[in-house]
Give the backbone structure.
Amino acid sequence: MLGFAHGPGTLPFLDRNPGVADFVELPFELLRHDPAAASIRNRIPVILHCASMSIAGFVPPAKTTLEEIARAAEEIGTPWIGEHLAFMMADPLPDLLKGAALHDPTTLTYTVCPQLSEEVVDMACRNLADLQSHFSMPLVVENSPQYFPIPGSTMSIVDFVIEVHRRAKVGMLLDLTHFTISSMNMGFDPHQEILRLPLEQLVELHVSGLDVQEGTAWDNHGEVANDTVLELAAAVLERVRPSAITFEYNWAPDLPDSVLLEQMGRIRRVLRHG
Amino acid sequence: MAKARVQSAREVHSVLAAGMADPELLENWCSDPSTAATLSAHAAEIDFEQVRRFSGLVTKVRYSDLRSNFPATFRLLDGAGLSIELFASYAPRAAALSKAGLNSKSDKLAALLEFLNGWLVLEDPVHALVWDVIRHEGAIFQIQTNAGRSGRPAVIAEVTRDSTPVRSAGAVMHCMTCNPVEAVRVVRTHGSLDSIPREPAVYAYCATVREGQIRIIGIDELCAFLMEAADGTGTIAELAERLRESGVDLETEELIDAVRGLVRAGLLESTEGSEACG
Protein backbone atom coordinates (compact mmCIF):
# COMPACT_ATOMS: atom_id res chain seq x y z
CA MET A 1 0.00 0.00 0.00
CA LEU A 2 1.25 3.47 -0.87
CA GLY A 3 -0.19 6.50 0.88
CA PHE A 4 0.35 10.05 2.04
CA ALA A 5 0.58 11.77 5.39
CA HIS A 6 -2.33 14.14 5.83
CA GLY A 7 -1.61 17.79 5.16
CA PRO A 8 -3.31 20.79 3.61
CA GLY A 9 -2.43 19.64 0.10
CA THR A 10 -3.27 15.94 0.50
CA LEU A 11 -6.98 15.84 -0.25
CA PRO A 12 -6.78 18.24 -3.22
CA PHE A 13 -3.94 16.07 -4.59
CA LEU A 14 -6.06 12.93 -4.19
CA ASP A 15 -8.99 14.71 -5.85
CA ARG A 16 -6.80 15.55 -8.84
CA ASN A 17 -5.31 12.05 -8.95
CA PRO A 18 -8.07 9.61 -7.99
CA GLY A 19 -6.98 6.10 -7.08
CA VAL A 20 -3.30 6.99 -6.87
CA ALA A 21 -3.03 6.36 -3.11
CA ASP A 22 -4.24 3.46 -1.02
CA PHE A 23 -4.50 5.28 2.30
CA VAL A 24 -3.93 8.50 4.19
CA GLU A 25 -2.01 8.66 7.45
CA LEU A 26 -3.87 10.88 9.87
CA PRO A 27 -2.34 12.49 12.97
CA PHE A 28 -4.21 11.80 16.20
CA GLU A 29 -3.44 15.36 17.29
CA LEU A 30 -5.42 16.69 14.32
CA LEU A 31 -8.37 14.44 15.12
CA ARG A 32 -8.25 15.59 18.71
CA HIS A 33 -8.73 19.20 17.71
CA ASP A 34 -10.89 18.56 14.67
CA PRO A 35 -12.90 15.33 15.08
CA ALA A 36 -14.59 16.02 11.74
CA ALA A 37 -11.28 15.15 10.06
CA ALA A 38 -12.19 11.50 10.72
CA SER A 39 -14.70 11.70 7.88
CA ILE A 40 -11.84 11.13 5.46
CA ARG A 41 -12.20 7.41 6.21
CA ASN A 42 -15.40 7.50 4.14
CA ARG A 43 -13.35 7.97 1.00
CA ILE A 44 -10.02 6.25 1.72
CA PRO A 45 -8.57 3.90 4.37
CA VAL A 46 -6.83 5.70 7.21
CA ILE A 47 -3.81 4.85 9.36
CA LEU A 48 -3.51 6.58 12.72
CA HIS A 49 -0.22 8.24 13.60
CA CYS A 50 0.52 9.72 17.02
CA ALA A 51 2.94 12.07 18.71
CA SER A 52 1.38 11.88 22.16
CA MET A 53 2.48 8.79 24.06
CA SER A 54 6.07 9.65 25.01
CA ILE A 55 7.15 6.03 24.64
CA ALA A 56 10.78 6.73 25.59
CA GLY A 57 9.90 9.08 28.43
CA PHE A 58 9.55 8.80 32.19
CA VAL A 59 6.33 10.80 32.50
CA PRO A 60 3.34 8.84 31.24
CA PRO A 61 0.63 10.37 29.07
CA ALA A 62 -2.71 11.21 30.69
CA LYS A 63 -5.19 8.37 30.86
CA THR A 64 -7.67 10.51 28.96
CA THR A 65 -5.17 10.89 26.10
CA LEU A 66 -4.88 7.12 25.78
CA GLU A 67 -8.65 6.76 25.90
CA GLU A 68 -9.00 9.33 23.14
CA ILE A 69 -6.38 7.57 21.00
CA ALA A 70 -8.15 4.24 21.51
CA ARG A 71 -11.50 5.78 20.55
CA ALA A 72 -10.04 7.47 17.47
CA ALA A 73 -8.30 4.25 16.42
CA GLU A 74 -11.54 2.26 16.66
CA GLU A 75 -13.54 4.95 14.91
CA ILE A 76 -11.31 5.23 11.87
CA GLY A 77 -10.54 1.53 11.74
CA THR A 78 -6.77 1.89 11.65
CA PRO A 79 -4.88 -1.41 11.21
CA TRP A 80 -2.16 -0.22 13.62
CA ILE A 81 -1.15 2.88 15.58
CA GLY A 82 2.16 4.55 14.76
CA GLU A 83 4.06 6.35 17.51
CA HIS A 84 7.57 7.78 17.87
CA LEU A 85 10.36 6.16 19.85
CA ALA A 86 10.87 9.48 21.60
CA PHE A 87 9.75 11.53 24.56
CA MET A 88 7.57 14.59 24.72
CA MET A 89 6.89 14.79 28.42
CA ALA A 90 9.49 15.15 31.14
CA ASP A 91 9.87 15.87 34.83
CA PRO A 92 9.93 19.50 35.87
CA LEU A 93 13.24 21.15 36.56
CA PRO A 94 14.23 20.83 40.21
CA ASP A 95 14.46 23.89 42.41
CA LEU A 96 17.92 23.24 43.79
CA LEU A 97 17.43 25.60 46.70
CA LYS A 98 14.12 24.27 47.95
CA GLY A 99 14.42 20.70 46.69
CA ALA A 100 11.01 20.93 45.04
CA ALA A 101 9.88 21.12 41.42
CA LEU A 102 10.01 24.51 39.74
CA HIS A 103 6.91 23.84 37.66
CA ASP A 104 4.58 21.10 36.44
CA PRO A 105 5.99 18.35 34.24
CA THR A 106 6.91 19.73 30.84
CA THR A 107 4.68 18.67 27.99
CA LEU A 108 5.90 19.41 24.49
CA THR A 109 3.76 19.26 21.38
CA TYR A 110 6.41 17.40 19.40
CA THR A 111 8.73 14.48 19.98
CA VAL A 112 12.39 14.61 21.02
CA CYS A 113 15.08 11.96 20.57
CA PRO A 114 15.68 10.40 24.01
CA GLN A 115 18.88 9.54 25.80
CA LEU A 116 20.19 6.39 24.13
CA SER A 117 20.89 4.21 27.13
CA GLU A 118 19.92 0.96 28.86
CA GLU A 119 17.84 2.98 31.29
CA VAL A 120 15.71 4.37 28.46
CA VAL A 121 15.51 1.05 26.59
CA ASP A 122 14.09 -0.52 29.77
CA MET A 123 11.65 2.32 30.27
CA ALA A 124 10.51 2.28 26.63
CA CYS A 125 9.90 -1.48 26.75
CA ARG A 126 7.89 -1.14 29.98
CA ASN A 127 5.93 1.75 28.50
CA LEU A 128 5.21 -0.17 25.30
CA ALA A 129 3.85 -3.15 27.22
CA ASP A 130 1.60 -0.87 29.25
CA LEU A 131 0.49 1.26 26.31
CA GLN A 132 -0.32 -1.74 24.13
CA SER A 133 -2.83 -2.91 26.74
CA HIS A 134 -4.98 0.13 25.95
CA PHE A 135 -5.44 -0.69 22.26
CA SER A 136 -7.00 -3.50 20.28
CA MET A 137 -4.64 -2.94 17.34
CA PRO A 138 -0.83 -3.16 17.45
CA LEU A 139 1.44 -0.23 18.14
CA VAL A 140 4.26 0.28 15.67
CA VAL A 141 7.26 2.35 16.68
CA GLU A 142 9.04 4.98 14.59
CA ASN A 143 12.75 5.79 14.88
CA SER A 144 13.58 9.40 15.82
CA PRO A 145 15.92 11.67 13.91
CA GLN A 146 19.01 12.51 15.96
CA TYR A 147 20.14 16.11 15.60
CA PHE A 148 22.77 16.22 18.35
CA PRO A 149 24.43 13.86 20.85
CA ILE A 150 22.29 13.22 23.92
CA PRO A 151 24.41 13.29 27.09
CA GLY A 152 24.59 10.05 29.05
CA SER A 153 23.97 7.96 25.95
CA THR A 154 25.76 4.64 25.94
CA MET A 155 24.77 3.33 22.52
CA SER A 156 24.13 4.53 18.98
CA ILE A 157 20.62 5.32 17.83
CA VAL A 158 20.76 2.23 15.62
CA ASP A 159 21.59 -0.02 18.58
CA PHE A 160 18.93 1.72 20.62
CA VAL A 161 16.28 0.99 17.98
CA ILE A 162 17.49 -2.60 17.61
CA GLU A 163 17.35 -3.18 21.37
CA VAL A 164 13.85 -1.79 21.80
CA HIS A 165 12.50 -3.89 18.93
CA ARG A 166 14.35 -6.99 20.08
CA ARG A 167 13.09 -6.78 23.63
CA ALA A 168 9.59 -5.36 23.08
CA LYS A 169 8.92 -7.41 19.92
CA VAL A 170 6.99 -4.44 18.61
CA GLY A 171 6.31 -3.60 14.97
CA MET A 172 8.69 -1.22 13.23
CA LEU A 173 7.83 2.01 11.49
CA LEU A 174 11.10 2.82 9.76
CA ASP A 175 11.39 6.48 8.85
CA LEU A 176 14.10 6.36 6.19
CA THR A 177 14.61 10.12 6.28
CA HIS A 178 15.04 10.12 10.06
CA PHE A 179 17.51 7.29 9.61
CA THR A 180 19.43 9.21 6.96
CA ILE A 181 19.41 12.39 9.08
CA SER A 182 20.80 10.48 12.07
CA SER A 183 23.51 8.95 9.88
CA MET A 184 24.57 12.36 8.58
CA ASN A 185 24.55 14.02 12.00
CA MET A 186 26.10 11.19 13.99
CA GLY A 187 28.48 9.95 11.30
CA PHE A 188 27.51 6.39 10.45
CA ASP A 189 27.04 4.62 7.12
CA PRO A 190 23.28 4.36 6.56
CA HIS A 191 23.58 1.70 3.84
CA GLN A 192 25.52 -0.58 6.15
CA GLU A 193 23.65 0.16 9.37
CA ILE A 194 20.16 -0.21 7.94
CA LEU A 195 20.84 -3.87 7.31
CA ARG A 196 21.45 -4.39 11.04
CA LEU A 197 17.86 -3.43 11.85
CA PRO A 198 15.37 -6.24 12.55
CA LEU A 199 13.64 -5.64 9.21
CA GLU A 200 11.49 -8.74 9.71
CA GLN A 201 9.52 -6.57 12.17
CA LEU A 202 8.95 -3.85 9.58
CA VAL A 203 5.33 -2.76 9.19
CA GLU A 204 5.55 0.68 7.62
CA LEU A 205 8.08 2.90 5.86
CA HIS A 206 8.13 6.70 5.99
CA VAL A 207 9.70 8.67 3.15
CA SER A 208 10.19 12.45 3.16
CA GLY A 209 12.71 15.20 2.49
CA LEU A 210 15.60 16.65 4.42
CA ASP A 211 17.84 19.67 4.17
CA VAL A 212 21.22 20.60 5.57
CA GLN A 213 21.55 23.90 7.40
CA GLU A 214 24.17 25.13 9.86
CA GLY A 215 26.08 21.89 9.27
CA THR A 216 23.19 19.71 10.43
CA ALA A 217 20.68 17.61 8.51
CA TRP A 218 17.05 18.46 9.38
CA ASP A 219 13.72 16.84 8.64
CA ASN A 220 11.86 18.66 5.86
CA HIS A 221 8.43 17.44 4.78
CA GLY A 222 8.33 20.36 2.36
CA GLU A 223 10.84 18.70 0.04
CA VAL A 224 10.88 15.29 -1.60
CA ALA A 225 13.20 12.45 -0.63
CA ASN A 226 16.77 12.61 -1.90
CA ASP A 227 18.63 9.79 -3.61
CA THR A 228 20.07 8.40 -0.37
CA VAL A 229 16.62 7.97 1.12
CA LEU A 230 15.32 6.32 -2.05
CA GLU A 231 18.39 4.03 -2.21
CA LEU A 232 17.72 2.98 1.38
CA ALA A 233 14.10 2.31 0.44
CA ALA A 234 15.29 0.08 -2.39
CA ALA A 235 17.70 -1.76 -0.07
CA VAL A 236 14.93 -2.41 2.43
CA LEU A 237 12.35 -3.40 -0.16
CA GLU A 238 14.77 -5.90 -1.68
CA ARG A 239 14.65 -7.74 1.62
CA VAL A 240 11.16 -7.23 3.06
CA ARG A 241 7.80 -5.87 2.05
CA PRO A 242 6.16 -3.56 4.60
CA SER A 243 2.39 -3.32 4.78
CA ALA A 244 2.49 0.40 4.00
CA ILE A 245 4.79 3.03 2.54
CA THR A 246 3.87 6.58 3.51
CA PHE A 247 5.10 9.71 1.74
CA GLU A 248 5.30 12.50 4.29
CA TYR A 249 5.02 15.56 2.10
CA ASN A 250 2.54 17.30 4.34
CA TRP A 251 4.22 20.64 5.08
CA ALA A 252 4.15 22.14 1.60
CA PRO A 253 0.88 22.07 -0.33
CA ASP A 254 2.66 23.60 -3.34
CA LEU A 255 4.70 20.51 -4.27
CA PRO A 256 3.74 19.84 -7.89
CA ASP A 257 1.69 16.73 -8.62
CA SER A 258 4.29 15.64 -11.17
CA VAL A 259 6.99 15.58 -8.46
CA LEU A 260 4.84 13.55 -6.08
CA LEU A 261 3.80 11.12 -8.80
CA GLU A 262 7.43 10.69 -9.86
CA GLN A 263 8.39 9.78 -6.28
CA MET A 264 5.56 7.25 -6.15
CA GLY A 265 6.69 5.90 -9.52
CA ARG A 266 10.23 5.33 -8.26
CA ILE A 267 8.97 3.33 -5.28
CA ARG A 268 6.49 1.38 -7.42
CA ARG A 269 9.29 0.41 -9.81
CA VAL A 270 11.34 -0.93 -6.91
CA LEU A 271 8.33 -2.86 -5.63
CA ARG A 272 7.81 -4.39 -9.08
CA HIS A 273 11.41 -5.33 -9.73
CA GLY A 274 12.85 -5.67 -6.22
CA MET B 1 32.50 23.72 43.12
CA ALA B 2 29.11 22.23 42.23
CA LYS B 3 28.52 18.86 43.87
CA ALA B 4 28.21 16.03 41.35
CA ARG B 5 24.58 14.92 41.14
CA VAL B 6 23.01 11.65 40.15
CA GLN B 7 23.16 11.37 36.38
CA SER B 8 20.02 9.93 34.92
CA ALA B 9 18.07 9.95 31.70
CA ARG B 10 15.19 11.55 33.61
CA GLU B 11 17.34 14.57 34.37
CA VAL B 12 18.63 14.88 30.84
CA HIS B 13 15.08 14.70 29.48
CA SER B 14 13.96 17.23 32.07
CA VAL B 15 16.59 19.79 31.05
CA LEU B 16 16.05 19.24 27.31
CA ALA B 17 12.27 19.54 27.59
CA ALA B 18 12.44 22.62 29.81
CA GLY B 19 14.75 24.35 27.36
CA MET B 20 12.61 23.41 24.35
CA ALA B 21 9.46 24.61 26.11
CA ASP B 22 10.95 27.94 27.10
CA PRO B 23 13.02 29.55 24.33
CA GLU B 24 14.12 32.39 26.60
CA LEU B 25 15.48 29.95 29.15
CA LEU B 26 17.20 28.13 26.30
CA GLU B 27 18.82 31.34 25.10
CA ASN B 28 20.11 31.94 28.62
CA TRP B 29 21.61 28.47 28.69
CA CYS B 30 23.20 29.08 25.29
CA SER B 31 24.79 32.26 26.61
CA ASP B 32 25.90 30.69 29.87
CA PRO B 33 25.77 26.85 29.91
CA SER B 34 27.04 26.83 33.50
CA THR B 35 23.59 27.96 34.69
CA ALA B 36 22.11 24.72 33.32
CA ALA B 37 24.98 22.64 34.65
CA THR B 38 23.70 23.19 38.19
CA LEU B 39 20.51 21.31 37.26
CA SER B 40 22.08 18.10 36.03
CA ALA B 41 25.57 16.72 35.79
CA HIS B 42 24.87 15.88 32.16
CA ALA B 43 23.55 19.33 31.33
CA ALA B 44 27.06 20.67 30.86
CA GLU B 45 27.47 18.21 27.99
CA ILE B 46 24.34 19.35 26.17
CA ASP B 47 25.02 21.30 23.00
CA PHE B 48 22.45 24.00 23.72
CA GLU B 49 23.17 25.76 20.46
CA GLN B 50 21.98 22.63 18.62
CA VAL B 51 18.96 22.38 20.91
CA ARG B 52 18.22 25.99 20.03
CA ARG B 53 18.40 25.16 16.32
CA PHE B 54 16.10 22.19 16.90
CA SER B 55 13.64 24.62 18.47
CA GLY B 56 13.99 26.58 15.22
CA LEU B 57 12.84 23.52 13.27
CA VAL B 58 9.90 23.08 15.64
CA THR B 59 8.92 26.74 15.30
CA LYS B 60 9.16 26.52 11.52
CA VAL B 61 6.83 23.51 11.53
CA ARG B 62 4.41 25.42 13.77
CA TYR B 63 4.31 28.12 11.10
CA SER B 64 3.51 25.59 8.36
CA ASP B 65 -0.03 26.93 8.19
CA LEU B 66 1.46 30.00 6.50
CA ARG B 67 2.97 27.85 3.76
CA SER B 68 -0.17 27.73 1.64
CA ASN B 69 0.01 31.53 1.30
CA PHE B 70 3.81 31.85 1.46
CA PRO B 71 5.11 28.88 -0.52
CA ALA B 72 7.95 30.72 -2.21
CA THR B 73 9.07 32.40 1.03
CA PHE B 74 9.41 29.07 2.84
CA ARG B 75 11.03 27.41 -0.16
CA LEU B 76 13.51 30.29 -0.44
CA LEU B 77 14.31 30.25 3.28
CA ASP B 78 14.93 26.50 3.15
CA GLY B 79 16.88 26.63 -0.11
CA ALA B 80 19.06 29.48 1.10
CA GLY B 81 19.77 27.64 4.35
CA LEU B 82 18.23 30.40 6.45
CA SER B 83 15.06 28.86 7.87
CA ILE B 84 16.54 27.02 10.86
CA GLU B 85 18.53 29.98 12.18
CA LEU B 86 15.72 32.42 11.42
CA PHE B 87 13.11 30.41 13.30
CA ALA B 88 15.56 29.61 16.11
CA SER B 89 16.06 33.36 16.61
CA TYR B 90 12.34 33.97 16.25
CA ALA B 91 11.31 31.17 18.67
CA PRO B 92 11.07 33.39 21.80
CA ARG B 93 8.83 35.84 19.92
CA ALA B 94 6.71 32.98 18.56
CA ALA B 95 6.35 31.53 22.05
CA ALA B 96 5.25 34.90 23.46
CA LEU B 97 2.75 35.34 20.63
CA SER B 98 1.30 31.90 21.19
CA LYS B 99 1.10 32.49 24.95
CA ALA B 100 -0.88 35.65 24.26
CA GLY B 101 -3.32 33.60 22.20
CA LEU B 102 -2.33 35.33 18.96
CA ASN B 103 -2.35 32.29 16.70
CA SER B 104 -4.14 33.43 13.54
CA LYS B 105 -2.30 33.55 10.23
CA SER B 106 -2.50 37.35 10.26
CA ASP B 107 -1.04 37.53 13.78
CA LYS B 108 1.79 35.20 12.85
CA LEU B 109 2.52 37.04 9.62
CA ALA B 110 2.58 40.47 11.25
CA ALA B 111 4.93 39.27 13.98
CA LEU B 112 7.20 37.41 11.55
CA LEU B 113 7.43 40.39 9.19
CA GLU B 114 8.28 42.72 12.05
CA PHE B 115 10.95 40.31 13.26
CA LEU B 116 12.38 39.77 9.79
CA ASN B 117 12.65 43.51 9.26
CA GLY B 118 15.25 43.62 12.01
CA TRP B 119 16.81 40.21 11.46
CA LEU B 120 17.55 40.33 7.74
CA VAL B 121 20.71 42.08 6.56
CA LEU B 122 19.38 43.77 3.46
CA GLU B 123 22.86 44.43 2.05
CA ASP B 124 23.03 40.65 1.55
CA PRO B 125 21.39 39.91 -1.84
CA VAL B 126 19.78 36.68 -0.63
CA HIS B 127 18.37 38.36 2.49
CA ALA B 128 17.06 41.18 0.29
CA LEU B 129 15.41 38.58 -1.93
CA VAL B 130 13.73 37.00 1.10
CA TRP B 131 12.42 40.44 2.08
CA ASP B 132 11.09 40.98 -1.46
CA VAL B 133 9.40 37.60 -1.68
CA ILE B 134 7.75 37.61 1.74
CA ARG B 135 6.37 41.14 1.20
CA HIS B 136 5.16 40.11 -2.27
CA GLU B 137 3.34 37.04 -0.95
CA GLY B 138 2.24 39.07 2.10
CA ALA B 139 0.66 41.74 -0.12
CA ILE B 140 -1.28 39.09 -2.01
CA PHE B 141 -2.33 37.43 1.27
CA GLN B 142 -3.41 40.77 2.71
CA ILE B 143 -5.51 41.64 -0.33
CA GLN B 144 -7.10 38.18 -0.44
CA THR B 145 -7.82 38.34 3.30
CA ASN B 146 -9.42 41.76 3.04
CA ALA B 147 -11.33 41.05 -0.18
CA GLY B 148 -14.91 42.16 0.23
CA ARG B 149 -14.33 43.56 3.68
CA SER B 150 -14.14 47.24 2.90
CA GLY B 151 -17.71 47.43 1.69
CA ARG B 152 -16.81 50.74 0.12
CA PRO B 153 -17.57 50.94 -3.57
CA ALA B 154 -14.78 52.28 -5.74
CA VAL B 155 -15.13 56.01 -6.23
CA ILE B 156 -14.71 56.88 -9.88
CA ALA B 157 -14.84 60.54 -10.68
CA GLU B 158 -13.53 62.75 -13.42
CA VAL B 159 -9.93 63.55 -12.52
CA THR B 160 -9.19 67.26 -12.50
CA ARG B 161 -6.67 69.55 -10.81
CA ASP B 162 -9.17 69.89 -7.92
CA SER B 163 -9.63 66.15 -7.45
CA THR B 164 -8.34 64.61 -4.24
CA PRO B 165 -6.70 61.24 -4.86
CA VAL B 166 -6.69 58.59 -2.16
CA ARG B 167 -5.10 55.17 -2.18
CA SER B 168 -7.67 52.45 -2.91
CA ALA B 169 -8.69 50.34 0.05
CA GLY B 170 -6.28 47.44 0.34
CA ALA B 171 -3.82 48.71 -2.27
CA VAL B 172 -0.24 47.98 -1.23
CA MET B 173 3.10 49.29 -2.48
CA HIS B 174 6.59 47.88 -1.90
CA CYS B 175 10.10 48.84 -2.98
CA MET B 176 11.78 45.70 -4.31
CA THR B 177 15.23 44.73 -5.49
CA CYS B 178 13.82 42.64 -8.36
CA ASN B 179 10.62 41.73 -10.14
CA PRO B 180 8.96 39.67 -7.39
CA VAL B 181 6.81 37.69 -9.81
CA GLU B 182 9.94 36.50 -11.60
CA ALA B 183 11.66 35.81 -8.28
CA VAL B 184 8.77 33.60 -7.14
CA ARG B 185 8.83 31.74 -10.45
CA VAL B 186 12.56 31.01 -10.09
CA VAL B 187 12.26 29.95 -6.45
CA ARG B 188 9.31 27.65 -7.11
CA THR B 189 11.04 25.97 -10.04
CA HIS B 190 14.27 25.51 -8.03
CA GLY B 191 16.11 27.81 -10.43
CA SER B 192 19.36 29.56 -9.60
CA LEU B 193 18.83 32.68 -7.49
CA ASP B 194 21.66 34.27 -9.46
CA SER B 195 19.46 34.14 -12.56
CA ILE B 196 17.03 36.66 -11.07
CA PRO B 197 17.76 40.11 -12.52
CA ARG B 198 18.24 42.57 -9.66
CA GLU B 199 17.14 46.13 -10.20
CA PRO B 200 15.42 48.38 -7.65
CA ALA B 201 11.79 48.95 -8.57
CA VAL B 202 8.48 49.78 -6.95
CA TYR B 203 5.54 47.40 -7.26
CA ALA B 204 1.93 48.10 -6.40
CA TYR B 205 -0.75 45.53 -5.63
CA CYS B 206 -4.52 45.80 -5.58
CA ALA B 207 -7.64 43.74 -6.01
CA THR B 208 -9.28 43.96 -9.39
CA VAL B 209 -12.99 44.37 -9.95
CA ARG B 210 -13.16 40.70 -10.87
CA GLU B 211 -13.25 38.89 -7.56
CA GLY B 212 -10.20 36.83 -6.68
CA GLN B 213 -7.90 38.60 -9.13
CA ILE B 214 -4.92 40.63 -7.99
CA ARG B 215 -3.16 43.20 -10.11
CA ILE B 216 0.60 43.63 -9.67
CA ILE B 217 2.13 46.58 -11.45
CA GLY B 218 5.61 48.00 -11.61
CA ILE B 219 5.25 51.77 -11.13
CA ASP B 220 7.58 54.70 -11.73
CA GLU B 221 8.84 57.26 -9.25
CA LEU B 222 6.00 59.72 -9.87
CA CYS B 223 3.34 57.05 -9.34
CA ALA B 224 5.15 55.87 -6.21
CA PHE B 225 5.05 59.45 -4.91
CA LEU B 226 1.32 59.62 -5.62
CA MET B 227 0.64 56.27 -3.92
CA GLU B 228 2.50 57.55 -0.86
CA ALA B 229 1.07 61.09 -0.85
CA ALA B 230 -2.52 60.31 -1.82
CA ASP B 231 -3.98 60.31 1.67
CA GLY B 232 -7.20 62.10 0.79
CA THR B 233 -6.14 65.50 2.14
CA GLY B 234 -4.51 67.20 -0.82
CA THR B 235 -5.77 68.04 -4.29
CA ILE B 236 -3.77 67.18 -7.37
CA ALA B 237 -2.92 70.86 -7.79
CA GLU B 238 -1.58 70.95 -4.23
CA LEU B 239 0.43 67.78 -4.74
CA ALA B 240 1.90 69.21 -7.95
CA GLU B 241 2.88 72.35 -6.08
CA ARG B 242 4.59 70.24 -3.38
CA LEU B 243 6.59 68.47 -6.05
CA ARG B 244 7.59 71.72 -7.74
CA GLU B 245 8.66 73.14 -4.36
CA SER B 246 10.91 70.15 -3.86
CA GLY B 247 12.57 70.85 -7.21
CA VAL B 248 10.65 68.56 -9.56
CA ASP B 249 10.01 70.15 -12.94
CA LEU B 250 6.44 69.08 -13.60
CA GLU B 251 3.22 70.44 -15.07
CA THR B 252 0.01 69.81 -13.14
CA GLU B 253 -1.39 68.18 -16.29
CA GLU B 254 1.30 65.47 -16.04
CA LEU B 255 0.20 64.65 -12.51
CA ILE B 256 -3.43 64.52 -13.60
CA ASP B 257 -2.47 61.96 -16.26
CA ALA B 258 -0.56 59.90 -13.72
CA VAL B 259 -3.52 59.91 -11.32
CA ARG B 260 -5.84 58.88 -14.16
CA GLY B 261 -3.57 55.92 -14.89
CA LEU B 262 -3.50 54.84 -11.26
CA VAL B 263 -7.27 55.23 -10.95
CA ARG B 264 -7.75 53.06 -14.05
CA ALA B 265 -5.40 50.48 -12.52
CA GLY B 266 -7.44 50.44 -9.32
CA LEU B 267 -4.60 51.70 -7.15
CA LEU B 268 -6.07 55.15 -6.47
CA GLU B 269 -9.54 56.55 -6.12
CA SER B 270 -10.25 60.12 -7.02
CA THR B 271 -12.88 62.29 -5.43
CA GLU B 272 -13.76 65.93 -5.73
CA GLY B 273 -12.04 68.00 -3.08
CA SER B 274 -15.30 68.87 -1.40
CA GLU B 275 -16.30 65.15 -1.10
CA ALA B 276 -12.99 64.15 0.42
CA CYS B 277 -13.16 66.94 2.94
CA GLY B 278 -16.63 65.84 3.96
